[in-house]
Amino acid sequence: MDKALQTMISNMPEKTGKSLEEWTKILKSKSFEKHGEALKFLKGEHGVTHGFANAIIALSKDRNESADDLIHAQYKGKENLFPIYNRLIAVVSTLGKDVVITPKKTSVSIIRKKQFALIKPATKSRIDLGLKLKDKPTTDRLGNSGPFGTMCTHRVQLSNVNEVDDQLISWLKEAYQKAD
């Protein structure tokens, strides 16, 4: 399991008042149909921060499915994209100790206090990197959010690990800083 995610799980009782297992039981007893409903419940009824609420929901969905299982399922048949994914994770892991990497069924959320990036294998030959960069104009490379909708403000399409360059890293840093 990712070190940052494991740290978040370890800190969960202190930061939220309950362990992941306790939160999982609570969520299963309510059986929310949508992620947003569970998020609203955890934040509104229990005062859980957005980052912890997202992690609790993602990890409670199927405790038999590890973060690694979720990631490997996303890249099944798209293994050629792993070098890009691994490079992105290496970069975001250097941004700060408060970065939380949260694998979901079809994407990986990168969270500080708020989600600031989203990594999604879009096709067999491309990863879409969503970024939250409010008030930043779009360019040929830093496109509009596309299929990410309001989850992100911009999208960068990556087909080669070399595209994780200084410019892209600066956008990730900016998105991280704005998520404070």
Strand content: 15-25%
Q: How many E-type strands?
A: 6
How do the SSEs run, as a string of H and E?
HHHHHHEEEEEEH
How would you sum up the major sheet? 6 strands, antiparallel
The side-by-side strand order for the widest beta sheet comes to 1-2-3-4-6-5
Count of the separate structural domains: 2
Span between termini: 25 Å
Q: Structural class given helices, strands, pairing?
A: alpha+beta
Q: Report the CATH architecture of the largest domain.
A: 2-Layer Sandwich
The rough form would be described as: globular
* Helix percentage: 40-55%
The radius of gyration is: 16 Å
Low-confidence runs of at least 5 consecutive residues: none
Which CATH C-level class of the largest domain is it?
Alpha Beta
Average pLDDT: 89
Total of DSSP H or I helical runs spanning 4+ residues:
7
CATH topology of the largest domain: Yope Regulator, Chain: A
